[in-house]
Amino acid sequence: MLGKLFGNKEKTHSLKIDGVDKSISISSKETLLQAALKEGVKFPHSCRVGGCAMCKCRLVSGKVKELTEKSYILSAEELQTGYILACQSLPRSDVQVEVDFSRADIPEHDLVTTPGKIIAQNPLTHDISEIVIETDKDIEFTAGQFAEITVPGDITDARSYSFGSAPGRYKNEIHFFVRAVPGGAMSNWILGDQAVGTKVELQGPFGDFYLRSSDKPMLCVAGGSGLAPVLAVLEDAANQGVNRPVSFLFGARTEQDLYCLDQIKEIKARWKGEFEFVPVLSDEPEDSAWTGARGFVTAHFEKYCTAETQLYMCGPPPMIDAAIAEAHKYKLEDKDIFFDKFLDKSDLEKPKQNEPAQTA
Ligand SMILES: Cc1cc2nc3c(=O)[nH]c(=O)nc-3n(C[C@H](O)[C@H](O)[C@H](O)COP(=O)(O)OP(=O)(O)OC[C@H]3O[C@@H](n4cnc5c(N)ncnc54)[C@H](O)[C@@H]3O)c2cc1C
Questions:
Q1: Which of 144, 178, 223, 298 lies at a 20 to 30 A Cα distance from 232?
Q2: Nearest C-alpha to atom 45 of ligand 1 is from which residue?
Q3: For a substitution probing ligand 1, which of 47, 54, 161 has the most ligand atoms within 8 Å of its CB?
Q4: Domains assigned to the chain
Q5: Does this model's pTM top 0.70?
Q6: Which residues contact 15 (CB under 8 A, 6 or more apart)?
């Protein structure tokens, strides 16, 4: 209450991570994960919104304030032994945590924070546009990763958007594919009339979705704006001369919702091995001229998914969950399944209001 009346004062604490040979200075307004990544610590993470548990760590000592409910994602045993999500925990004292670094599988890049300006909105479908942001500093990333965008005004939290092109295609310019989420604050702001010419802030790269080195055939699956990181991975792999067989299922509702088809064609033409592209429509009217694949992407796994496949996918969480379950039917193991779920606030528990800080 007092904090609300007088504005929460920013304090500085220290963050000690077991096995990391330095004490990190952390503001009371940044999460443990943000502070660790800023210091170059390879802290395991994926979604950064409290939905994947990749950044779970054990609170050894100190107090944190948690931004979202974690009990639905951590096991009862983890909760009892003091596990927290580093991406959702703000320090309320000096803090010490224990992290399992063997789970960290993140490309090495410096974390960059840069001002940027939205310079173009190029419509791709009725609800997805390519957004081009000119940046003061270049962000080096690996294809498949994402950045966080902060916009001016009332939308206080940053949101994640995946890089929609291979690294190196543009200098000081980042291309994202943004879908207008019904009732969504940031996506509708970015796609709104006032956005072009507006200054924003970008931070990145983040994430553990990228092409693993292997000879296994790739099954790529994209839904909606999830095409951005999948396309970036394929474009980059084509640039590198990768020759693994690829089956690429692109799920959309109707033919109107398919986009970037020329770009996919161009990547396929340059691909050194077999490349089969299969657009799959779930809601295309029965009497339309469409003669291609229909249904959900998972209905087509029988043809393309085996125990020897590597599965790469991005898009809506229900699509990813269904695809993982389907892939398991073909004995594909989790070690060969890589994905980013495009989680938003509706997928996560309501933020906690005025909860006491957790202590270990
Ligand atoms: C790793 C990652 C990569 C991503 N990449 C992309 C990308 O490349 N392109 C893209 O378009 N998106 C991407 N996303 C999703 C993106 O980050 C945003 O979540 C999305 O744009 C929606 O943000 P928003 O501010 O518009 O919606 P929000 O304001 O976050 O709201 C989303 C929905 O939740 C509802 N809602 C709001 N608050 C609550 C609440 N407290 N409880 C329950 N429901 C609530 C809203 O009504 C709305 O329907 C990615 C997400 C992740 C995690």
A1: 298
A2: 346
A3: 161
A4: 2-106 (3.10.20.30), 112-206 (2.40.30.10), 218-344 (3.40.50.80)
A5: yes
A6: 23, 24, 25, 26, 32, 35, 36, 91, 94, 95, 96, 97
